[in-house]
Design goal:
7 helices; three-stranded antiparallel sheet; elongated; 16 strands
Length: 351
């Protein structure tokens, strides 16, 4: 009777076993239920539930834990193995568990659907994976957030917590945000310049200044008397554009453009929207930053497209595999009426 390989009992043993396996880019995870198998790849986000072997599993048996696949292999004796990079979901960490002030500020700012990366990897059997998870990666300091719905999970791709070792109490489990993960946002005097406040409250709305290439909290800016935001100057090669509805009608009748006056009016409305992250009254970070940024680029380079609706649907920037349809997101964008324009405290730009 063949002898089965012993299950690894330490991080070192798991690492040795994983290195002994054949590296693969994808694996089929088999579930006990018929028809429940699914394929996972490196960099996929997955969820895992306690398997009953941990100290607190009896009271936390339904706790859903999140990880990202950092490696996959097939071991000749142990079968399919997976290396997991772990994340904390909302509420798993408190400010008291953070060892430095920027870490405490960071955890306070965690959104309800936000996952926080931990610089800690472990190994396990691929069958431990419960399901694939849709998680959006974004960069807080750049235009990077697609349109999401209230149930979409997201993670800040530029921030990772590390375990903090306490010489006086080695068993104390604490974490910190390394200074290498700290990137300045907003103004130098902003209390939240190193973090992205939990979006939803009115004071947490961000506006983008294209001259400074920075996100700024509206509460850190003065309101402007301008009637519209500052826009990039059009390129010298941009085709001649109508300036009024009458001109749009004349140019359409003369076959000088293919879009009609109503398309032109819609384009004017959308091209003068601010680039904003977060909406008042919503408890999740709804943002049209990708589509508004693209509209500005297109307007500066080519002007109004021939088919405005087609252009908008192709570039609306809805995250993949979520419940929100592009048509729904477009209707939300067209119905959005920002109330205020602000002045960038750095350059004076109207944002």
């Amino acid at each position: 009777m063949p002898t089965l390989a012993p299950v690894p009992r330490s991080a070192i043993e798991w690492s040795d076993v994983f290195r002994a396996g054949e590296v693969v880019q994808g694996l089929l995870c088999r579930r006990p239920e018929p028809g429940e198998s699914f394929y996972v790849k490196c960099r996929d986000y997955v969820s895992i539930y306690p398997d009953g072997s941990g100290r607190d599993d009896a009271i936390k048996f339904d706790r859903k834990m999140y990880a990202r696949i950092a490696g996959l292999c097939k071991h000749p004796e142990l079968g399919s193995l997976v290396k997991l990079h772990w994340y904390f979901s909302y509420g798993e960490l408190t400010p008291d568990e953070m060892a430095n002030q920027v870490g405490r500020d960071f955890i306070v700012s965690q959104g309800e659907n936000e996952l926080v990366s931990l610089s800690h990897d472990t190994y396990t059997f691929a069958e431990r994976i419960h399901s694939l998870e849709r998680v959006i990666n974004m960069t807080p300091t750049a235009i990077s957030f697609p349109v999401i719905d209230a149930a979409t999970l997201f993670a800040r791709g530029d921030k990772t917590l590390i375990r903090s070792f306490n010489m006086n109490n080695p068993t104390l489990e604490r974490y910190e945000l390394p200074l290498s993960c700290v990137f300045s946002m907003c103004t130098e005097t902003c209390d939240g310049q190193y973090t992205l406040p939990a979006l939803g409250a009115e004071g947490d709305i961000l506006r983008w200044c294209f001259r400074c290439n920075k996100w700024l909290h509206t509460t850190c800016c003065e309101r402007s008397n301008a009637v519209e935001v500052s826009l990039p100057l059009p390129r010298d090669t941009r085709p001649l554009q109508p300036q009024t509805v009458e001109e749009a009608v004349q140019m359409r009748c003369g076959n000088r453009v293919q879009y009609g006056p109503f398309d032109w009016l819609l384009w004017q409305q959308l091209s003068t929207l601010p680039i904003q992250r977060g909406m008042p009254g919503l408890n999740y970070p709804l943002s049209f930053e990708l589509i508004v940024s693209k509209i500005r680029e297109e307007d500066a380079q080519n002007g109004c497209p021939n088919d405005v609706q087609e252009y908008l649907l192709e570039n609306i920037g809805v995250a993949k595999d979520i419940g929100l349809m592009p048509q729904e997101a477009l209707a939300m964008l067209q119905g959005w009426k920002p109330e205020d324009i602000y002045e960038c405290p750095r350059c004076g730009n109207d944002i």
